[in-house]
């Protein structure tokens, strides 16, 4: 028997609202799942960043520890220059160092570093590469054929660059440590402070 007019409308409305509710729950599930995935990605990125900073901090910190103090380095350089002037024959042996192995290993992950730390880190290792290149030049056979004053100038440049590497390393460590303890804004402020003339020697 046919139903009264309008009998099917409530059934249609019920199915419609069931679909709406089901769709709402599905959309909510997508939103919650997306939020959880983003939170997990942020946590993973933060962990990778902490690991990268810890590795760089340890390696950069190890370099200044290998060096003598500024005073001792300057005194050693002056003594060597005096010996070179007194005896033009011998050419000082300059060791070649590799202080970037950890940095090279981190290059595939370098993009996770924030700008405030990636710039000083890259600058630090660029400076170390310049020292390595100068050491290679000073170890070359052609150096012995240079005049003694030219060899002395090269050696003085080498000593000066090693001293700067110590200063730069201390600055890089201060910025990384500031980021780890107080965040990006504090690290940026520390980087600006340390970029002022004479700040490197007084860096913590």
Task: Describe, in plain words, how this protein is organized in 3D.
This protein has one domain. The chain is 75% helix and 0% strand. The protein is mostly helical. The chain has 6 helices and no strands.
Question: What is the strand and helix layout of this fold?
Answer:
Layout (H helix, E strand, L loop, with lengths): L7 H59 L3 H17 L14 H6 L8 H25 L8 H35 L1 H11 L10
Helix pairs in contact: 1-5, 2-5, 4-5, 5-6
Task: Give the gist of this structure.
This protein is mainly alpha-helical. It has helices at 8-66, 70-86, 101-106, 115-139, 148-182, 184-194.
Report strand %. Answer: under 5%
User: What is the H/E order?
Assistant: HHHHHH
How many domains would you count in the coordinates? Answer: 1
Low-pLDDT stretches: 1-9, 200-204
Count of alpha/pi helices: 6
- Largest pleated sheet: none
Please count the beta strands (DSSP E, at least 2 residues each): 0
Q: Which descriptor suits the 3D outline?
A: elongated
Average pLDDT for all residues: 78
